[in-house]
Amino acid sequence: MRNNSFEDLDTFKAWCKENGFVYPSSEIYGGFAAVYDYGPYGTLLKNNIQREWEKYMIQERNDIYLIDSAIFMHPKTWEASGHVQSFADVLVEDKKTHKRYRADHLIEEYFESMGEKIDCDKKTPEELANIIQKYNILSPDGNELTTPRNFGLMVKTNIGTTDSTLTDQNVVYARAETCQGIYLNYKNIIDTFHPKLPFGIAQVGKAFRNEIVARQFIFRTREFEQMEMQYFHHPKDKDRIFDMWMKERMNWLVNVIGLRSQNLRFKRHEKLVFYASKAFDIEYNFRTLGGFKELEGIHDRGDYDLSQHSKFSGIELDYFDPDTQESFIPHIIETSIGLNRLFFAVLEDALTVEKVRNGKGEIDNRIVLKISKYLSPIKIGILPLVKQDKLIELSRSIQNVLKREYITQIDISGSIGKRYRRFDEIGTPYCITVDFKTLEDSTVTVRDRDTMQQDRVSIADLTKYFSDKFK
Ligand code: ATP
């Protein structure tokens, strides 16, 4: 029996798979840990989320440049950024099962189970070892743990033209965050576009991390996508700009993406990396993962990144202000959100089970993905009332009119009620039904996913009807 509450992760994962949103990677080979593929509806949804981010962050502003930098960068990039030396998580292993865990997560979970809180962010392996020893913390299977140690998160590979060049000496890294590509292109943007401060550079793309724990579905994967923006400014403006981005990012999540505000909150970082002066996370209440977890980071990175790249490359990365004749390295405020994590939050937030009366008057469950219509993978479902050539033909001609503007889908299999339910479940905001009356008077019914109200609309007016709906 399928549990329709969607409160537990396994049910949620099964739903994502059954409905063509997310598939485990390499499933026919038994799967590949912490990597996922996106099915047809998942891909459309992910693209729509990305498009909304680009609209809000670039199209609707005049001060942010969108770029697309390469995944591979000069290896010195990662020395300058500090990743090669210190991008690591603290690992512990169950001495019996050899399952590996992040020490900070195990300790935090232990304290949570005791109704207490502890923040393990940025604690060293020695500090974590002391806590594990003091409280006698065991693995989830009740076994002793190994001594905590650092585990590098960078994904390494070799590229070169001959076998002899593929040595340990010329290791390259798959980028662990997209923002480094932005810092490396800062000078290009300055030289080509001569922007005045403050301005931003943004990009969306893949990042790779050899994450230790891999049991949180698409929340934490080894290959994922980030939507990052770096806002370059004069340090005197940093507080005002930080506040602006806190408001902007929360506004986007609530009013554009449509996440329920009660499921979002800010969390201030108490312990900061040495170069940061302020950092906040926006956390989302992931029900299926047991509570609030990081969705987006907003960080004041100071002038660390450009200073480091200037030092390691030997290239001056100063900004010259023609008004004040001042020359300095701009400071950076970063907003960074995982596209896949947001995708997870969007689905969890929108997936609803409603009680409705079916055709026989009985109470039934209706699963509806109450997603913003701008994010819906399929915008309009087209349903011939029955499988009859003339109705199917007419449905196709309606699709031909609408398909350049909207992603549409014709469904001819099963009862009309079942087909409505299928479209409800994948979040399709409107369904057109082509029935026998259509053959007489060229009108169709259009059903609204949320209200289930039906309008009778002339085929000739459909383009205008939908352009009003999607305005
Ligand atoms: P966490 O503490 O969860 O490991 P982080 O603080 O290392 O995340 P950042 O480096 O600030 O994360 O990355 C910015 C955003 O990228 C995060 O807020 C998250 O949405 C996303 N992200 C980071 N790591 C992963 C991952 N392994 N899988 C999916 N998304 C990720």
What is the structure about, briefly put?
By secondary structure, the chain is an alpha+beta fold. The protein has helices at 9-18, 40-59, 76-80, 83-86, 103-113, 125-135, 179-193, 238-256, 304-313, 339-350, 389-402, 416-425, 436-441, 462-469; strands at 22-24, 36-38, 64-66, 88-93, 100-102, 149-152, 155-158, 171-174, 199-208, 223-233, 264-268, 278-286, 291-302, 319-321, 326-328, 331-338, 351-357, 363-369, 380-384, 408-410, 430-434, 443-448, 454-458. It is built from 14 helices and 23 strands.
Termini gap: 41 Å
CATH-scheme architecture of the largest domain: 2-Layer Sandwich
Radius of gyration: 26 Å
- Main sheet characteristics: 7 strands, mixed
- Unreliably modeled segments: none
Q: What is the CATH fold-level name of the largest domain?
A: BirA Bifunctional Protein, domain 2
